Amino acid sequence: MYSFSSDRRFVILSYENSHGLLLLSSRKEGNAIPTRVDILFKDVRAMDIRVFMDEIRITEVSVEVGANFQSLPDKMAEPGLRLYLLNGGDWNGYVFAGMVWTHEDDRSQNETSYLLLGQYPIKR
Fold this sequence. Notes:
By secondary structure, the protein is mainly β. The protein has one domain (about 5-115). It contains no helices and ten strands. It starts with a strand and ends in a 19-residue tail after the last strand.
């Protein structure tokens, strides 16, 4: 089961409908935070998240947990899809997708995310 946690601010950087690619990014903040962290969800089928999140926790849970959300993502269940709960501070949401990866680097904010170059890390 996948889990990830960070106290950094993340924003939706991009969403590509054709492959269901959702990219969240935490930007560099000068010398205080010299790296960026990207989170890529692939094959996104449904989501309920904020445009920006001041902290984030992602936990993979059973698809059946989707019955607790008004949009009922569990009704879209197919083999290979997973339900990821997202929360932080005073909010809760989810992403219903096939896979998720994270990557941290010191590249410029204007450079394409490593995760969008198609060279996904083995570890998810």
